[in-house]
């Protein structure tokens, strides 16, 4: 495409950092978010990369995020790290927590990081992958404003709430990386169809009375369809329990929107569990992961979750990423 | 129905116990399995209650399960309990592990139980519910012989692999109990249709080449359809990593069948994570769970996972359970 420009990962990180700081984010808080933005572009997830920088900047300026917040860590038990994100960005709170979570998991065999008063953490698998790169199995949960209705109901009670699991490989990489939301499709896709005035396929969203709809505007007033029906609701509830109830964060029914400028801080949460597989599997973990991955890759055309991101990441490290000129223009206007 | 008989929960437990012991199970191993069988009938899950007792007895007699095994516990780290089920029943291995898991989770804030060389653990939510009744948040994972194919492939690599989460309520009960498999429908339903010569709905199972089928025999030679497509595969992979790779148990691709007498012990695994919510949520957990449950129950007709089992359990405690006379005849013939 002619309306893109190739940027290196370092250039993406620096551009993100400068824009965030220009909007009033402290350097200490801007750095981890800028780093995650570059990694997300490297993974090929443009919807959550640079395109989010103008939104983050707007949220600092309207007070939905405190750009100068200092997250506060406590250690209530040997295996528990609790971080109050203090209505700042999730990324510095996660960084602060991981610095204690990783050694705690190595010492105890397992440790939990519970983050409250937080914000949208971007791509959840970016964070669990870092645990795998530290040689730990990482489980992650993050909640969002309510958009999925319970079975038998029509009013949203839980968000599209993703979970993620990253399994470490022997070479310091994530051998398997699962990162999936509880809805059939991302809410941003329904919003995109609404902006473009196009109908949505049946099965993406439901009308306010719970009936199927192909009108994206009606779907946005109703609820997102859970993946696999009641089992998608179950996944969203699991994540809500882990990321909000277990951390002391806001439930999705009480959280302000992640989009727009209204409502103040969402105060949602994240929960991560890190486990040392060397302590649980009696030396058998690496071989099992390799055999499982091998059984998938032996089938022509079959793939594991995370394969696509890994291939894109390797290419982006060598050749950079093609970024939309329109997105770059919006960010450069903020500097 | 005239072909049922009302039994009290104690009668169900004793009948199960006597049949298991008559088949060669030690009393120490028969008791937890008999107790779980009564609880499963109380929950209204007849498919996994007394109907399984003749199968368990046959598996002791053919050597698929060692009825006199002694599970072996080790404590490699303060937060990790590992149990080798020694190809015995899963239930005594879980009991042995929980006796250490519960105090470890209270002391550390979080602990993991990894069980290998194990067997079908019956209803997974029976076990996580016990953690919730001890005031802990319980997460559970158990793997099964491979029956679901990866995205883009047609050969099974993971089982119908359920996960479960049980959130404790303030009164010592499980306020929310999620227990769901990764497939659209239980494999036993496809087997039942095959026995009865009835077609299955499209979307339940796939032919060996990965195409849709309504023939249950073809589906049983092919694979089970994952719930929600690739997201169901993701759930099954998460469970496989937790229950098999992380514990040192057999992967589903190497496990012998749970049904029939061939192949020796399946050597599959279970993993449980117990977390003390008092240590992670700064006192906010009970109110959050109550508010989340309240938001569901405020909608007429809406329900939470676990509501149905709880209602049936209350009724069964008062009035007993109607059990199939045919099932009772099969069990009484074993005494």
Automatic annotation (TrEMBL), chains A, B:
Oxidoreductase is among the record's keywords: yes
InterPro entries per UniProt: Mal/L-sulf/L-lact_DH-like_ah, Mal/L-sulf/L-lact_DH-like_NADP, Mal/L-sulfo/L-lacto_DH-like_sf, Malate/L-lactate_DH-like
Keywords, comma-separated and alphabetical: Oxidoreductase
MF-aspect GO terms: oxidoreductase activity
EC number: 1.1.1.338
Record bears the keyword Oxidoreductase: yes
Family: Belongs to the LDH2/MDH2 oxidoreductase family.
Protein name: (2R)-3-sulfolactate dehydrogenase (NADP(+))
Organism whose genome encodes this protein: Pseudoruegeria aquimaris
Taxonomy of the source species: Bacteria, Pseudomonadati, Pseudomonadota, Alphaproteobacteria, Rhodobacterales
Name of the gene encoding the protein in the UniProt record: comC
